[in-house]
Amino acid sequence: MAETFVRTSMLAPSQMPIAQVGMVSWIRRHLLAGPKDTILTMLACALIFYTVTHLINWLLVQAVWVGSDRTVCATIAQGGLQPDGWSGACWAFVGAKFEQFVFGRYPLEERWRPILVAGLLVFLLAPMLVPSIPRKALNALLLLVPFPVISFFLLYGGLGLPIVETPLWGGLMVTLLLSFVGIAVSFPFGILLALGRQSQLPLVRWGSIAFIEVIRGVPLITVLFMASVMLPLFLPVGWTVDHLLRALIGVSLFGSAYIAEVIRGGLQAVPKRQYEGAESLGLSYWQKMWLIVVPQAIKLVIPGIVNTFIGMFKDTSLVSIIGMFDLLGIVRLNFGDPVWATPVTPMTGLLFAGFVFWLFCFGMSKYSGFVERKLDTGRKG
User: Fold this and answer.
1) pLDDT, tens only, 80-126
2) Which structural domain range is residue 184 located in?
3) CA angle 7, 9, 15 (to 5 degrees)
4) I need a surface site. Which of 2, 166, 178, 302 has the fewest CB within 10 A?
5) What is the helix, strand, coil percentage profile of the chain, to 5?
6) What pTM was computed for the model?
């Protein structure tokens, strides 16, 4: 008969183990795992603290926020102005030039017109971006048909409004105009190019390939230079094309070539059974593409599309090559103003322009993430 053992007393309770999850555990495992890691972590923290405190001091504490000229940005010591002593960031310069940074040299008494255009754009675009708002077809129709016509007459003039020539346009207004028009034109044109590159018609396929490869093979600054300098040489004598229109065409064509390759990647990712299923339903080529294939392709490449849009938005600063001044160009132009010429003026102006560019790009990135989550793009299970 086998012997049995019966425990007569319970084991003493063990000490609770150290938490293996949470921020404290992560810091112990990755930052304080050993003497070397601890020393490197302390040095990194000291460097970050030193850098951040000096940045805050320069950007906020010692910064000058109001003033009428460069003297307000000079430090005061021993009862007078030091010739070589300057404050932190000269935000007074940005405040004094803010309207010029936004509108360029657009006449003061007519600046209500671009403000009205911006308000109309927000009013028509916001319902398109919010999924829960109905009547998107009507919003799209208003945004694509009457809005561009109304905006042209408001910004340029006519129909009783004074004419404001495009060389007077500048600043953030030109940046937004170039980027929004470039995005609106390049997206549908890029889809057509992507479909054309996969077409069974040799003329359409090779024409699309030639356009895409030529445009993608040269930098945007070359496209703008060709549109500004070379295009008038091919026009009849006496004909001319507005500089802003040349920039719009150049940016749109350049963006459409990159959008076409992004969309083509999405078309190749759509399973073949989707094509076969559409054909089995008796759909025509265009019905198959617009109703079945293209929506799935766009859904798959949302990050690539938004990445291209962000690149286009930042590349608008290159229009200075053809004599136009976007936000960055108008900021740099004001560096030469002797009223505000200080050693801290350029850095302050560039930080302001960089923050504005980052704000719009970050907004597009966050909205892209929202759309991906809404469509469950890339999720498994």
Assistant:
1) 444 455 678 899 999 999 999 999 999 999 999 999 999 999 998 88
2) 91-106+164-375
3) 115
4) 2
5) 70, 5, 25
6) 0.84
